Amino acid sequence: MKLFYEDVNLQTFQAKKTGEGTDKQGRRYVVLDQTAFYPTGGGQPHDTGLLNQAHVYDVEEVDGAVRHYIEGTDPLLEIVHGEVNWNRRFDHMQQHAGQHILSAAFENNFDLKTVW
Questions:
Q1: 3-class DSSP state of 42
Q2: What is the model's pTM?
């Protein structure tokens, strides 16, 4: 479950580990039954934070599963406590909202569309 769609202000959560692995680049990841960590996409960068004491440095959605890329080799418990780096999340939310406001102003006032 993607908790970030339910509550964008959610900063902590509990989840059950449902999978783990290593990707082609050798990066270790964990998949949870629910998460408040936003993966890269939709014009916003991924969240960072902690799963128990493991640092989450990247989050991606791969084949419908949200992968939490973590540092270290210590195994995570079956039930994990997640904590989103709120300062980073809030900064990205503000920048993203600001971009939408600017894009609307440019389109409405000057007929200029935002393109990537």
A1: coil
A2: 0.83
